[in-house]
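re: ur question from earlier - yeah i can do the single chain one, its not a big deal. heres the input i used so u can compare w yours
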Amino acid sequence: MQQYIVLAAVAMFLTIDGAHATMPKLTEQPKPASPIACREWAAKQDDEALEMWGIQESGKYSDAVGLGRLADWCMGRGVPAIVVT
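and the output i got, formated as tokens:
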């Protein structure tokens, strides 16, 4: 009986772990990267990506912030800590 309880607990733990958000797929970045090409590339990403990249400390999101962060990342800058990848 105890082994069934342990098995059930392990199964529950594994299903809870699958609930984490995942980064939406982004389209292929421009090569070579340039400020203009990266801004255009950022503008072509879907709404879900803009929402995730535009999240702010307040919990709200901004398309402008998302576009800026995506363009910066395209140019080789790091991913901000608040953006979950």
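Residues 33 and 75 are 6 Å apart (CA to CA). not sure if urs matches, ping me
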